[in-house]
Specification:
The protein is of the alpha+beta class. About 30% of the residues are buried. The chain has 2 domains: about 80 residues; about 260 residues, Beta-galactosidase, Chain A, domain 5. It is built from 4 helices and 22 strands. Strand 17 and strand 18 form a beta hairpin.
C-alpha cells in the first residue's frame, strides 16, 4: 500500500515539474520575442551605421559581448589590446606596438619610409623576458607601376613575354600626412602616403585593438594598407597595370593561400607571403579582389624568387581610372583568442534559471519520496 502511495505521489510530482517547465519555457520564448521585436525596431530607427570620413565603423550600440560591433568579443579585445606610439617626419614614420602578459613582453615596430627606393615598410619584431631577448625583421617595398600589354592573355605581367609600355617608378612623394581618429574601436592611426603626381596613394591604418576599417577587421598585430592608383596616364588603349612589390627577409619565405584572419573568421579571399625568421611568423597579405571604378575584379599575382632572401611580386589589376586594393602587413600566431565549447552555451542562456530550479525540484522530490517510502 505504501508503495502504491509512493508511486502516486511521485507521478503527481513529475506532472507538476513538467507543467512548471512548460510555463517557464513559454515565458522565456515570449521574452525573447519581445527582445527581438525591440531590436528590430531599434535597427529600423537607426538603420544607418555611424561611420567616420575615413571609413572606420563607429557603432557602439551592440551586443554586450561585442560593444564596438567588429565581430570580436570584448574578452578577446581586452586580452590582445596593445599600446601604440607613433613618430613622424616628412619622409619617415614609426609605429611602435607593445603588449605584455605573464611577464613576457612582445613588441613590433613598423617603419614607413619614402624615397628613391620607393615606399618601404620595415617590420621588426621583438620578444623579451627576464632571461632572453630575441629580434627579427623583414621588409616590403612598393617599387613601381608597370603598364603592359598582356600578349599571352593569362592576366598577369610576364617580364619575358609581355610588352612593356611604360614604367612609373615610385621615387617622389609628398610629406607623409598623419591624423588620429578616436572611435568605439579605440584610437586609429592613419597615415597618407601619396606620390607627388597624385597617381599612387597608400593609406596606412594602425590600431591598438581590433577595428573595422573600410569593411575589413584589422587586428592590433597588423597594419592595413589601402593602395589607390588614380588617373594613371595610360599610353596604350589595350594595356593594364601591375604593381611591383619587393619582399626581403633573412629567413625562409613561403606562399600561403589561407591567412590567419581567414582561419579566425575575420576575412575571406586572402592570400599571403609568410616570412619565417627564427620562429617568427611575419606576413604580407592581400585581397584576391580589387575595386576598379567601383566594380570588383580579381587580382592575379606573379611571384618570382630573386634570391634566397628576396622575392619579387607583381599584383595585376584590370584597366581603370581608380583602382583600390587592400594589402596588410603584420605578425601571426601571437594573438590570444578564446573559444567556448558548445556544452557551455546553456550556462550563458536564458534557460539557466529553469535548469537550476528544475534540478532543485527533482532533488527535493526524490528526497521526499524516499522519506515517505
Amino acid at each position: 500500500m505504501n508503495n502504491v502511495k509512493t508511486r502516486h505521489l511521485f507521478g503527481k510530482s513529475l506532472l507538476i515539474m513538467v507543467l512548471f517547465l512548460l510555463v517557464s519555457s513559454a515565458a522565456v520564448v515570449n521574452a525573447q520575442d519581445d527582445t527581438t521585436t525591440t531590436e528590430q525596431e531599434d535597427e529600423h530607427e537607426d538603420e544607418f551605421e555611424d561611420e567616420t570620413e575615413d571609413g572606420i565603423t563607429d557603432d557602439s550600440d551592440d551586443e554586450d559581448d561585442d560593444h564596438d560591433d567588429d565581430g570580436v568579443s570584448d574578452d578577446d579585445e581586452s586580452h590582445n589590446e596593445r599600446e601604440v606610439q607613433v613618430y613622424l617626419t616628412d619622409t619617415h614614420a614609426e609605429i611602435e606596438s607593445k603588449h605584455e602578459s605573464g611577464g613576457v613582453e612582445n613588441s613590433f615596430k613598423i617603419e614607413v619610409t619614402t624615397g628613391l627606393d620607393g615606399l618601404e615598410f620595415k617590420l621588426e619584431y621583438e620578444t623579451e623576458n627576464s632571461t632572453l631577448e630575441t629580434e627579427k625583421e623583414f621588409e616590403v617595398e612598393f617599387d613601381e607601376i608597370v603598364e603592359f600589354i598582356d600578349d599571352n592573355g593569362n592576366g598577369v605581367y610576364d617580364e619575358e613575354s609581355d610588352t612593356d609600355v611604360q614604367t612609373m617608378e615610385l621615387v617622389s612623394f609628398n610629406p607623409i600626412a598623419y591624423r588620429l581618429v578616436n572611435t568605439s574601436n579605440g584610437d586609429v592611426h592613419i597615415f597618407n602616403v601619396t606620390s607627388t603626381d597624385g597617381v599612387f596613394t597608400a593609406m596606412v591604418y594602425a590600431t591598438g585593438e581590433f577595428a573595422d576599417i573600410n569593411g575589413t577587421v584589422v587586428a592590433p598585430t597588423q597594419v592595413k594598407i589601402d593602395v589607390i592608383i588614380r588617373d594613371f596616364n595610360y599610353i596604350d588603349d589595350g594595356s593594364q597595370l601591375a604593381l611591383k612589390v619587393k619582399l626581403e627577409a633573412s629567413g625562409e619565405t613561403s606562399y600561403d593561400d589561407t591567412t590567419e584572419d581567414e582561419e579566425d573568421g575575420r576575412a575571406t579571399d586572402e592570400v599571403e607571403i609568410d616570412f619565417l625568421v627564427d620562429g617568427m611568423d611575419g606576413f604580407f597579405s592581400w585581397k584576391e579582389t580589387a575595386e576598379v571604378d567601383g566594380v570588383t575584379y580579381p587580382v592575379n599575382a606573379t611571384i618570382d624568387e630573386v634570391s634566397a632572401t628576396e622575392q619579387k611580386l607583381y599584383l595585376n589589376y584590370v584597366r581603370g581610372d581608380v583602382i583600390i586594393h587592400d594589402p596588410k602587413i603584420g605578425i601571426e600566431n601571437i594573438l590570444v583568442m578564446s573559444s567556448n565549447g558548445p556544452g557551455l552555451d546553456i550556462l550563458s542562456s536564458n534557460y539557466l534559471p529553469i535548469v537550476l530550479v528544475s534540478a532543485i525540484v527533482v532533488v527535493g522530490l526524490a528526497f521526499a519520496v524516499k522519506r515517505r517510502a
